Amino acid sequence: MNHEVTVTIQADATGKELKLTIEKLLNIQNFLTNNEVLASAIFEILKNFTENFTEPVTLTFAFDPASLKGNQKPVVFY
Questions:
Q1: Please, are residues 3 and 60 in contact by the beta-carbon 8 Å criterion?
Q2: Structural contact between residues 61 and 5, judged by C-beta atoms closer than 8 angstroms
Q3: Is the CB of residue 46 less than 8 Å from the CB of residue 67?
Q4: DSSP for 13-73?
Q5: Model confidence over 6-64: pLDDT tens digits?
Q6: Where do the domains of the chain lie?
Q7: What gap in Å lies between CA 43 and CA 61, rounded to an integer?
Q8: pTM above 0.85, yes or no
């Protein structure tokens, strides 16, 4: 994903075979309300089973800190 998003999963985070998909969403108008401003693209990250991972998973999103104004902070929603 051009280094825009990185998913780091420990080898023992699941006992199942993992298939992970990451898709950059292009039609995002319905996600934005109250005049929010995006600091990065919106991604859909899915795995092939419903159970939680047994170990923490790290999601890293690249963004331009200069795009933030004043006391704005970047946040992640799911």
A1: no
A2: yes
A3: no
A4: S-SSPP-EEEEEES--GGG--TT---SS-EEEEEES-SSPPSS-EEEEE---GGG--TT--
A5: 999 999 999 999 999 999 999 988 888 887 778 889 999 999 999 999 999 999 999 98
A6: 5-67
A7: 10
A8: no
